[in-house]
Amino acid sequence: MPRSPSPLRGRVVLLSVLAAAAACSSNPEKELQSDPAILYERAHRSLESQDFNTAIKIYEAMTARYPFAEESRQARLDLIYAYYRARESESAIDAAETFIRENPTHPRVDYAWYLKGLVDFERTPNVVERLMNVDLSDRPPQTARKSFAAFKTVVDQYPKSEYAYDSRLRMVYLRNRLADYSVNVADYYRRRGAWVAAAQRAKQTIEEFDGAPATRQSLEIMIESYDRLGLAELAEQSREVYAINYPDQTARVEQKKSWWKIW
Q1: How many other C-beta atoms are found inside a 10 Å radius of the C-beta of residue 119?
Q2: Measured distance CA(107)–CA(160) in Å, rounded
Q3: What is the pLDDT of residue 13?
Q4: Can you give 34-61 as a three-state secondary structure string?
Q5: Between the CA of residue 177 and those of 123, 192, 245, what are the distances in Å?
Q6: Hey, is 33 helix, strand or coil?
Q7: Which stretches of the chain are DSSP H helices?
Q8: Is residue 44 one of the residues assigned to a domain?
Q9: Residue-wise DSSP of 142-157
Q10: Residue 114 lies in a domain
């Protein structure tokens, strides 16, 4: 007569099955084989909770496994943002450019352009720099032109975009940063007596960044440079432009001294 199974053995078998099931349910590889809608929801929750590394992992696996799913297209946009927040700048730029190239008519391609601009956007002073009053105008704005171009695309091609207003404000900031750096280069030449180079760089600053605060200093450098070079007509024209734009101001220009005067 066969013996009935021991109650203890039954409990052991049940616990083993439950443990195996739990192991399968917690297997990351198994999770990444879920339905794309479920995967997207998991990645989005990670993104909202600022767990950017987890979000990136799921988005990458999802877009690779289900490249043609509807959720994958939105995932590619979210992935750009996740890279940006995780400070993976190169990956963010690559993802943005790929999305723009492959989805030029997508209704949210303006967002890809905006994120591309944000990644390259010149950083503001950090806490230490603010305390030390560091002047960032002497620092070459390495990626400012790229950022400016991306924001300009949003403003020019998608004027009704929800990102157009912020893009325009950032463009003004970048224009002023670029102008400040450019006029500092002109002033560098001025202080070293390289009058031709100073005049040329100051003129370039005005032409490229018209309306920036640095325009005034650029005109002053042009006036002084032309005076030093003996180009009276160009100096007078620059003075006239200065008087029109700054009628209540006097150009801060060092007067040229005769060689025999030491005072």
Answers
A1: 23
A2: 12
A3: 39
A4: CCHHHHHHHHHHHHHCCCHHHHHHHHHH
A5: 11, 23, 21
A6: coil
A7: 7-25, 28-31, 36-48, 52-65, 70-85, 89-102, 109-120, 127-132, 144-157, 164-191, 195-208, 214-228, 232-245
A8: yes
A9: TTHHHHHHHHHHHHHH
A10: no
Nearest-angstrom CA–CA distance, 170 and 174: 6
Q: Are 245 and 211 in contact (CB under 8 A)?
A: no
Lookup result for tokens 């601009």 = 117
246, with CB counted inside 10 A (0-12, 13-18, 19+), is: middle
111 close to 77: Cβ distance less than 8 angstroms: yes
Tokens of 147: 């950022």
- Residues 197-250: tens digit of each pLDDT: 999 999 999 999 989 999 999 999 999 999 999 999 999 999 999 999 998 877
120 located within any domain: no
The C-alpha atoms of residue 189 and residue 119 are separated, in whole angstroms, by: 32
State the CB neighbour count (10 A cutoff) for residue 103.
Answer: 15
Structure-token match 């100051």, residue found: 202
Q: Would you state the structure tokens that stand for residue 4, as one six-digit string?
A: 């009935």
Tokens 């007078």 belong to: 236
DSSP symbol at 137 = G
Contacts of the segment 97-102: beta carbons below 8 A, 24+ positions apart? none
87 conformational bin, left if phi > 0, alpha if psi -120 to 50, beta if neither: left
Q: Is residue 106 in a domain? A: no
- Tens of pLDDT, residues 148-187: 999 999 999 999 999 999 999 999 999 999 999 999 999 9
Most distant CA pair in the chain, distance = 130
Residue 175 to residue 2: CA distance in whole angstroms: 90
Domain of residue 58 covers 28-86
pLDDT at residue 124 tops 70:
no
- Count how many domains the chain has: 1
